[in-house]
Amino acid sequence: MHADFDAGKDLTRDALFLGIGRQHDHNRYMKSVKVIFDEDGLKTISPPEKDKDHIRENILELRKTLHRFAYQHKTVKKLEQHMIDILMLFNKHATVTGTNKRRMSIAEAALEVDLVAYPKLTDMLVETRLLEAEEEGLKEACQLYQKTFIQRKLMRNVLIWWLPPAEEVAQRLPTTQQFLREMWELYDQSGPSRPSKDFARDEVRCVDAKLHCGMKQVDPIKKIVFHDKQGQPRLFEDHDANPLRQKFFVLWSPPDELEQTDVPQRLSMAAMGVASTYTTEPETTPVSPLRRKSRSGDLEASPPPSTPKVRLRQKRQLQVESSYPVNTEIFERKPA
């Protein structure tokens, strides 16, 4: 494996416009790499070992930073969900001309990769027809586009939860669908099953963001073949590598009549309740018998304790935020 040169240029460009002070000298990188044979006898592009920290900070960690601040930011996640709804409405009525002058929906043109219709599927096609709002069939899609993208009336944050690292919890971390199921169970237990004004539960979305250096839980540095001053291949295992971090976004556009009711806060409390069940538990570890010196200088084994002592792991704080403030202290559990 080698660092992607084009991806590095894209990351540097995005960092510049976002005001993130990271610099990667691509010309210097290309002058310093060599083509050598790896342990399997295959040719690979190899950077010098002295560039390991530079690649870590200015390519791999920069990628993770950009995903957190831009590519998978909460506002981006909201706009993505709104665009899905808009395109679903748009697809019902909007058509493009394909091969043999066949009228096709945008979904058909995309899935069939029609040679005539597919190149027409651009941002400009969708944006122009939504802004002009001249077609009666697209009225609902145009209104939703105006509300969300133009007026910026976006979804609210029922919950944003930083999941703990997988190695810190005993049980398997939930999927987005499992999280929603558990949230609705707690929601139904917290009050009446039907509020004063009903709402569609499928409008509450849970989407995730995975923040890593490009290979999820695997450290990319371990896969790069470096070379030393003699040109010999070297592999590194970086113990300073940050693990994969994951976030859940529970998003909802509440109807106006529900904004001032207890429904949004009940939803937020239910989501926090689910998140709190995936915190670190105390582990019970038997303590080794102590050995002390007798007056003669010999070591004596002191009697083992009657009950094993409890060694507490440091509990990770519940990292959440919400548009509907809830006292998170009610979810803090005391060790048994």
Write the layout of secondary structure elements.
Elements: H1 5-17, H2 26-32, E1 34-37, E2 43-46, H3 52-71, H4 74-93, E3 95-97, E4 103-105, H5 106-112, H6 123-132, H7 139-150, E5 156-163, H8 176-189, E6 205-211, E7 226-227, E8 233-234, E9 245-252, H9 263-276, E10 283-284, E11 291-293, E12 299-301, E13 310-311, E14 320-321
Antiparallel strand pairs: 1-2, 3-4, 5-9, 5-14, 6-9, 7-8, 10-13, 11-12
Helix pairs in contact: 1-3, 4-7, 6-7, 8-9
Strand residue percentage: 15-25%
* Separation, N- and C-terminal Cα atoms: 48 Å
Overall radius of gyration: 28 Å
The sequence of SSEs as H and E is HHEEHHEEHHHEHEEEEHEEEEE
Strand neighbour order, sheet with most strands: 6-9-5-14
Query: Tell me, what's the shape?
Result: globular
Structural class: alpha+beta
Please, could you describe this protein's structure?
This is Deoxynucleoside triphosphate triphosphohydrolase SAMHD1. One of its GO terms (cellular component) is nucleus. GO terms for molecular function: dGTPase activity. Keywords: Hydrolase. The structure is a single chain. With 336 residues, this protein is of the alpha+beta class. Among the domains are: 72 residues, no CATH class; 114 residues, no CATH class. It is built from nine helices and 14 strands. The strands form six sheets. It has a four-stranded antiparallel sheet, with helices on both faces. A two-stranded antiparallel sheet has the order 1-2. Strands 3-4 form a two-stranded antiparallel ribbon. Strand 11 and strand 12 form a beta hairpin. Helix 8 packs across helix 9. The protein is globular.
